[in-house]
Amino acid sequence: MDKKTSVHEDIPLFKQLEKQHPFLLMLYFAMVGSGMLFLFLLVGFTKSLIKVDENLLLLPKAFVISTLLILLSSYFVQKAWQNFLTDEAKSLRQNLLYLLILGFCFSISQVWGWSDLTKQGIGFSGKAAGSYLYVLTGLHILHLLGGLAFVIAQIANYNKACNDGVQALIMFSNKYEKMKMKMLKDYWHFLDVLWIIIFLYLVFKI
Amino acid sequence: MSAVDTQNLETQVHHDEHHDHEHHEQSFIRKYIFSEDHKVIAKQFLITGIFWAVIGGVFSVIFRLQLGFPDANLEVLRPILGGWITEQGKLDQNFYLALVTMHGTIMVFFVLTAGLSGTFSNFLIPLQIGARDMASGFLNMLSYWFFFASSVVMFASIFIQTGPASGGWVIYPPLSALPKASLGSGLGMTMWLVSMALFIVGSLLGSINYVTTVINLRTRGMSMWRLPLTIWAFFLTAVIGILSFPVLFSAALLLIFDRSFGTSFYLDEIYIDGEALHNTGGSALLFQHLFWFLGHPEVYIVLLPALGITSEIIATNSRKPIFGYQAMVLSMLAITFISFIVWAHHMFVTGMNPFLGSVFMLLTLIIAVPSAVKSFNYITTLWRGNIVFTPAMLFSIGLVSFFISGGVTGIALGNSAIDIQLHDTYFVVAHFHLVMGSASFFGMMAGVYHWFPKMFGRMMDEKLGYVHFWITFVGVYFVFFPMHYIGIAGFPRRYYSWTNFDAFNMYADLNMLISIAAIITLSAQFIFMFNFFYSIFYGRLAPLNPWRSNTLEWTTSRLPGHGNWEGKIPTVYRWPYDYSKPGAKEDFIPQHIPHYETLESNLEHEKALEEYDKEVAKEEEIHISSHSH
Ligand code: HEM
Ligand SMILES: [Cu+2]
């Protein structure tokens, strides 16, 4: 029968998406865009490997540590999300604080990885394959710094709630606040997954 | 009630509240400059786009002077071009390349991407889906200001001593990667890259907003299958943008590193004056892949909005339902998808494996199928319609003409065996100027003529519109059709001069003809500009629904304010193409008219909707009364 007839008939994917808050959707689309950026850098990296010796590149140990750090941070952001759902202002703030610290440590560890690379003789302006490592990690750190700014804003936000029961009640029952927390959680998992993919790819390719 | 309906109600409540806050006066700056109103932002995009179109158009005429009249003395241009006119009164050769490059960049990105999508996605999405504004007015405003900043940088690059970028709009390395390689590879190239980076950010902000708005903020009853085709087109354009512009960003970023930080992403074993550069391990070809992975979808970013606008205008002015609504949507979806897997047809001559070439050839030819479906549907919509020849309608029909005559040569070029001969000749120039340049430009013009009354509350002059159309339409064919012959003869694009090749001398007259036609066509655009700016202030006041059209924007007041509808947002009860429905009182039934008010024209399967619509309307009543303060 003709599609025009029924109002209910709609495209299932859209039905799902429609229920989300617009800002959340915008974040998802932005993540898709970022994903494309990294995907094609990985393609370029793969192509550049043809032109280097097999064992020229060594994966810095620091990258392994970073991986552990970011996995741990994802755990804390998930816990913070749980705290939000169960109205626990104090542990929520606590977990976000851990998240913040881990995020900073991750960035430092990545930069430490760069100095490892340089010591190995893989400079930023050396062979193209090596330069990709800097660009991939550098762009990832930039994305992560954006996330950290968001974390700091959220911590400041929950400080109020921690000292005032009424404030907390208002905050935890507010749909918009919930959406913000969900944005933070999803974005952080995105950063996590993104790094894991890059890391695994490097492990297998180098 | 379904979940979708509740959601729509919620957004509506939200928006109604929002509306109540809007009554206080806004300052001039918030209202017209840093505005978050999608209609104002759309006009900002339009005016900036027109500004760029003039610059891009004038550039093309300057280099056409060189091609058409290679012996002419261009001393008269010295007041404008200064040192770029040599002592002998000739156009500087470096500047010729810069002009070509800037022309391409400006037209593709600044006019036909920002000027077209920026204007009409912004203006029409909220108005046609029944929303108060975009999902995020703030990001929408940022999107324009990123574009503005990018424009400022690009504009400034025109005036620097070494001239703007000159490596072609595709800026292939190594030419663009080595600042010493040519005049335009220096500061001009740096500014080009900075400008494009800003442009991409702005464009992404816009696209994300458009997609979200279409998904999230449709008014009640506006299911995806009741969206006007304009909205489908803008929606898919934005999806393409989100997927492809980040890739151009990565290409530009790596190029910036190569130029300024000594990396070798695109450089490998290059010798300058017999001396080897230190760069090793990169691949110049990689850039082409990255560029065309954006570049081909980009041609559809440019074209799809024009096709959407045309669908709407042709249906309205043929007084007929669009032929094959679903086929139109599905072919746009197909185009969106296929446009991502054909990019290497721009690279047949890069030494790619012939087998790979044949794969891309097949994929390229497949894209002709949805394109042809759309062409047929336009023609069948026009067929035996009660056609009203408004200027907008003429421009839309012009688009169909260009889309076909330029698309046919695309099918030819898609065959690698033919393309190897014709690549980088004027044949390609003819192909894409017809199918993309002129078609999209005509779509944009059609849109301006059609929605001018909604934008400015006044009518444009029709007679001037007709004059503008006929000169431009004939002019475009005179400019681009002969290029096919010159191209088949082998004349390469982006060459300053061909007088040294005896073989091309017989084409001197043809080149002169093209140049004269180009000058006339450009001049005709000033008729449009006069009409446009004059009518903003002195045009006849527009009636509420001048084209007797079905879509929601015509249910607003003559000049809608922030929030679009003074009262509540209309509910939608039908698709937008109920034109000349048998039995109906008028030859159009707007989308907000419920079926129980059109008993005389309801089709058999619409009888069920009579009851349904009544219930929806009742719910809406309750909704209003519980929210009136
Ligand atoms: C039937 C569909 C089409 C086919 C099969 C097709 C095929 C091609 C091919 C094979 C080329 C490469 C020619 C060469 O460089 O040697 C090309 C160039 C081009 N096409 Fe198309 N095309 C089609 C439609 C379009 C459309 C709809 C647009 C724009 C909206 C477009 C815009 C362009 C542009 C801009 C170029 C030249 C890019 C450059 O090198 O600067 N084409 N087309
Ligand atoms: Cu293409």
Overview of the molecule:
The complex is a heterodimer of chains A (206) and B (629). With 206 residues, chain A is mostly helical. Chain A has a single domain, classed as Up-down Bundle (Four Helix Bundle (Hemerythrin (Met), subunit A)). Chain A is built from seven helices and no strands. With 629 residues, chain B is mostly helical. Chain B is built from 18 helices and two strands. In chain B, strands 1-2 form a two-stranded antiparallel ribbon. Chains A and B meet through helix 1, helix 2 and helix 5 of A and helix 1, helix 7, helix 8, helix 9 and helix 18 of B. The structure holds protoporphyrin IX containing FE and copper (II) ion. Copper (II) ion binds next to helix 9 of chain B.
Shape of chain A: globular
- SS strand fraction of chain B: under 5%
Domain count of chain A: the total is 1
Largest interface: A-B, 44 and 56 residues
At CATH level 3, the topology of the largest domain in chain B is Cytochrome C Oxidase, Chain A
Provide the spatial order of strands within the biggest beta sheet of chain B: 1-2
How far apart lie the N and C ends of chain B? Answer: 26 Å
**Percentage of residues in helical conformation of chain B:** 55-70%
How many distinct beta strands of chain A? 0
Please, what is the CATH homologous superfamily of chain A? Cytochrome c oxidase, subunit III, four-helix bundle
Which architecture name of the largest domain in chain B does CATH use?
Up-down Bundle
CATH superfamily of the largest domain in chain B: Cytochrome c oxidase-like, subunit I domain
Q: Biggest sheet of chain B, open or closed, and with what strands and sense?
A: 2 strands, antiparallel
User: Secondary-structure element sequence of chain A?
Assistant: HHHHHHH
Q: How much of the residues of chain A is beta strand, in percent?
A: under 5%
